[in-house]
Amino acid sequence: QVQLVESGGGLVQPGGSLRLSCAASGITIKNYVMQWYRQAPGKERERVARISNILGGRTTYVDSVKGRFTIFRDNAKNTVDLQMNSLEPEDTAVYYCHALSSMPGTDHEYWGQGTQVTVSA
Prior knowledge:
4-stranded antiparallel sheet, single chain, mainly beta, 7-stranded mixed sheet
C-alpha cells in the first residue's frame, strides 16, 4: 500500500517560516518526480514546487513562491521537504505531496492527505 504522509503544517505569522515534510512508503521516490501542490479555499489546486529525479534534481517553482520556497528530496530517507520562508497570508492553503512515476511505460501517481498551513497575525 502506497502512502504519502505530510507533516509540519500549522499556524505561523506573516514573515515566518515552516518546513513541510512528506514521508513515502510503498514506493521508492527515486523513481518518481516529487511535487508539492496547494489548494486555498475557493481556489483550484496549484503546483507550488517540483523536483525531478534526474538531471541532478532539477527544481521548478510557481512564480509566487520563487525565492521564498525550496524543495528538497532525500532518496535515502524516501522523503521530500518544502522549506517555506517569508510566508504571506496568500500562502494559506492545504498543502499536498504528490508523486508522479517516471518509470518507462508508467504514469501512476499518488497524493498525500494534505497538511494545513495558515499564515495569519
